[in-house]
Design brief:
InterPro entries: BCAA_transport, Leu-bd, Leu_Ile_Val-bd, Peripla_BP_I. This is ABC transporter substrate-binding protein. Pfam families: Peripla_BP_6. Keywords: Amino-acid transport, Signal, Transport. The protein is of the alpha/beta class. It folds into two domains: 228 residues, Response regulator (Rossmann fold), CATH 3.40.50; 129 residues, 3-Layer(aba) Sandwich (Rossmann fold), CATH 3.40.50. The chain is 42% helix and 20% strand. It has twelve helices and 15 strands. The termini are far apart. The protein binds methionine. Methionine binds next to helix 4.
Amino acid sequence: MNRALSRSVVAIAALGAASFAQAADIKIGVAAALTGGAGQYGNAIRNGFQLAVEEINAAGGVNGDKIVLQIEDEQGKKEEAINVFKKLIFQDRVLMVFGPTLSNSAQAAHPIAQAAKTPAFGTSNTADGITSIGNFVFRNSVTEADVLPATIKKAVEVAGVKKVAVLYGNDDVFTKSGYDNFKKALEDLKIPVTTTETFAKGDVDFKAQLTKIKATNPDAIVLSALVAEGGPVMVAARQLGIEVPIIGGNGMNSPRVFELAKDRSDNLWVGSPWSSNNDTPANTKFIAAYKAKYNAAPDQFAAQAYDALYIVSTALKGVKLTNKLEADRLALRDALPAVKYTGATGAFQFAQVKDKAGKPAGYDAVQTPIVMVTRGNAYVIQK
Ligand code: MET
């Protein structure tokens, strides 16, 4: 039952009683890439949300109200993300929308939420500029700008990387932003680039680029890719006898790498606030609950979605919902920035960013990344 309807039914039942406290549903939208090349990420995200909503509702919901998730597949395509956002916001009249999975789609869909004064909350978007869209846009995914310098620095310290080749996807908002941030981090650390090569979404043959890269004899390959292309890049590099570390961005932090690259998946460096080896009480509880429910290990994307729903439910506990959608959306927006929460991904808080004109806009995550290296089909923390 939707909120408006359930309230009025209760009102009739109460027969004019002065006050009544009756549970209502809080409808929240989730736009995730459940199919297509980004499906690996989107399914982990959906699982994280579903686990969190079960736990939150079992523990009494939000001040007695139950959260109901409406989950839609945006297929990792920006046109679909726009359609799904419109449907959730205008037709289903959800309180807020999580997602979409890719920054490429968020850049297209979040302006719709901003214009409709509906909170949009990314849990996996890491490209620059997403939260600059406006003050209804939030994310708890840590940006490439924050993670990549830490990853490169660690690889330089530990693996003695002195010069690198760069390979990136030049037709996607996230892979392009990863490239921009890698470039800046390399300049800051005065690491020379031997060559810069590109590929496009859907490419399957990377031999030409990797052959050029091999000829420049780099100490590492810096790779800004989504896993659908990044997994095959790793296989092709190792097949060509390139054994140097591969330094990846957020797209390469997915167990899908192990499915795609199998025994060619070692020596991949990534950074993230979340690690399966981080044995804090909140993370240990999350991993055990996830395994019990799905009979599979969670990943970073599941962890971020799981924490994101707790962040929103923490904000909602301080909000008096009025059943007037516009007011409730604004009240949630106003309550979110102050939330501090320690979950599976560690201690979290928001920081406000500016828009292109320098005016205060949306909210990014403040979290410390951990650097990890793949070994034997696992991400191992690199101290
Ligand atoms: N971080 C990616 C993006 O912003 C999406 C998740 S897959 C790494 O597009």
